[in-house]
Amino acid sequence: MASPRLETYCCPNRDAATQLVMTFQPKVFCGVCIGSASVSLLLTILQLLPKKGQSPRKMPKASSSATILLLISACDILGGLGMIFRSSVWLGFPGFIANISVANGTDIWPSAFCVGSAMWIQLLYSAGFWWLFCYAVDSYLVVRRSAGLSTIVLYHMMTWGLAALLCVEGVALLYYPSLSSCENGLEHAVPHYITTYVPLLLVLVVNPILFRRTVSAVASLLKGRQGIYTENERRLGTEIQIRFFKIMLVFVICWSSNIINESLLFYLEMQPDINEIPLKNIRNAALITWIIMGVLNPMQGFLFTLAFYGWTGWRVDLKWQKGEIPWESMSSSTAGENAFPSPVNYQSNIHDSKKISTTDSQQTDEAISMLSEGNTSGDDRLARSSPIYQGW
Fold first, then answer.
1. Does residue 342 contact residue 331 with C-beta atoms inside 8 Å?
2. Tens digits of per-residue pLDDT, 194-250?
3. Count of domains in the chain?
4. For residue 249, what are the CA distances in angstroms to 303, 304, 377?
5. Which of 21, 23, 243, 334 is the most buried (most CB within 10 A)?
6. Residue 89 is part of a domain; what is its CATH number?
7. Which domain holds residue 120?
8. Could you tell me if residue 363 is inside a domain?
9. How far is CA 316 from the centre of its chain?
10. pTM of the model
11. Is residue 343, in this structure, part of any structural domain at all?
12. Which residue ranges does the record annotate as region Disordered (predicted)?
């Protein structure tokens, strides 16, 4: 799981609340993390692998939104691998980990492993939060300004730059003046927790707003295709709205326990003695949410692939086509029953719109150009290039 408590535990003079959760059934907790992360990792990779029955045709160039979705999955996979490695070491070498508690110890490797593994997990999941924010921004810009693959470089700079900057800054403040003599006090740890939860809270607050505005803009765009809002356009808008809802639902399910747990632990830290009897229920709630975090945080990778693509099936096709990236086949036409799918098949909606008059077609092309990224024209360009159709 991803929690700033992982870095806090690396300090020999850690606070009582961190000591409470990190020493609560460590073997059980590490086993839960390994199990959840392993299941999520295997199912996520299964979801992304090409499936039998996929068309061997040349795939169109991926949209920026489709690329962002793959990067989110990549961050979840790498973060899950970090959890598995860290928990495995904790289970396999308990004596090695015990040396972290020695403030004047001469062996630096336990502390280096503690800091390195915690920062790896935190950095990857923070980057995933930033990529999810970029996905919401890109979806909105595609509708409003026809943003495309040219903006992916800016997204890379913002995502990796901010994730690394906040992670390093928070850890540097936490371990000041040195790892072996971290300063005590809640005020000293607050900047570290703020830098950790800023991207998470950003996604929780800003993404729903951007998604709602994107859905409204798409509805207006589809209505302008024929001058009326037909059943096809209404169905398309509803499917897009449901897709955004699934993404936010997965995010809330996987990370709400972190916010609850952190709030409880901060409350305990402000008490003179966290072992007082009146605080028993709060301690129990903190420990329960701590275990829940170990289950839900790693499962984000698999649940996101379900929200992005739906269930893609078990029939994996490992015969790779030369020069072809199978998971870029997110165009709206389906080649077979188990083809790697776009989440929703919109091709029928597009072909239905071809029945309009010539004048209306010109107006439709102008509206479609707001969503397109390539140089082709008309509905085919929209189907092959727009993240509204290709990445969703």
1. yes
2. 888 999 999 999 999 999 998 888 877 777 665 666 677 778 778 888 999 999 999
3. 1
4. 10, 10, 35
5. 21
6. 1.20.1070.10
7. 23-53+61-309
8. no
9. 24
10. 0.79
11. no
12. 371-392
